[in-house]
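Hi R.,

Here's the chain you asked about this morning:
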Amino acid sequence: MATSQTQNPLKTPFSQLSIKEHKPWFYKPRHLTITAAHPHLSGRKLRAAVIGGGPAGSSAAETLASGGIETFLFERSPSTAKPCGGAIPLCMIDEFSIPLHLIDRHVTKMKIISPSNIAVDFGSKSLRSHESIPMLRREVLDSFLRARAQSAGAQLIPSLVTSLELPSSPFSPYIINHTTNNSRKTLAVDLIIGADGANSKVAKFIKAGNYTCAIAFQERIRLPDEKMEYYQNLAEMYVGDDVSPDFYAWVFPKCDHVAVGTGTVCAKQDIKLYQRGIKERVRNKIYGGKVIKVEAHPIPEHPRPVRVRGRVALVGDAAGYVTKCSGEGIYFAAKSGRMCGEAIVSASDGGERMIGEDDLKRGYLKEWDQKYVSTYRFLDLLQRVFYGSNVTREALVEICGNEYVQRMTFDSYLYKKLAKGDGWEDLKMVLGTIGSLMRCKIVGREMEAIKF
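And here is the predicted structure, written out as tokens:
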């Protein structure tokens, strides 16, 4: 028999919903279908739980709380952060009101280095005087965004979510079972936003389906002052079979150290081999450095088959919003969290009305896909064309030397819109790409023969 705490949980104060002993149970209806009109809530506000306190979860929680919804933000380990290169697009600073003191470096120069160690400067000429690529640390950004969500009214719960229970009827609550300091507790909510990363428990709970994941591995290395000066405003990207069979490796500057890392989808078991490869490539540049932290984390390669089910929505890495080719996810995580929160606030009339699956699909998923699906498809195409072999990687680096290509790339990356190009320049770019692929095919064969 259910306890009195869960008979009418949404009318019970949060502090009284915690219990010491509770055996998880699950309702498993085949479908959760809401057919009745969504009712007004009497004497209370809509209650939402956001699971995961990274950029996606914090942005969602801030938006919900600011919009009048009773919001609970679950974060298992507030003191830790996801391993991440830390680059964000320039537009994110204004769009998400990121204070400038959080930015470690304003990168104005990039180098892309080919398998044969041909380096192309990317940005020194094509970046405008007011443009840069901001670099920051995730632990700094995540902490700031969580604090801002709390200031908006979200209640931060430092707790591990262990299981979820489905509603017994269309408008009854979800039950969140969680553990804090070895104490088992429950919370009843109207809806859930899953922002709990690539290994999302929320995604498993709603049977959102699997997706392909890459593995990212990086070491933070504190360099001697003279070595760090080289990376003052410079980021480097390396491509080649020695550093990754299907992605790229990087050296990104932080406040007092650099992040040196790599990623792969198809050969996760060899990630440490590729990490040794990038460290060998940059050996002279990081000589004398001290490793201060080692990090690894899965990164989704495409959206999940299901991102909304019932009154549960996925955002950020849990939804699969990391771009191919660049591996970028911070902006898209924060943006998806905000868009999902805005859809809920709008559909619920500021927390006054219950919402349903159709509201989430219409107000969140449809808007997201219309805005960004073309970007994801384009970057997926680029990765499949250029990251498959050393031959095509040589071509990629050659193409990146073109100032028009650089300008188009920065316009798209910095401002998160597919840049509109010049028709004649676009045609020349296509012809140049074909020429590069043809030339580099010959060069690549000669290189492989020399290696053999």
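One quick note: The chain has three domains: 9-22+40-80+139-209+304-377, 91-137+212-300, 388-451.

Cheers,
M.
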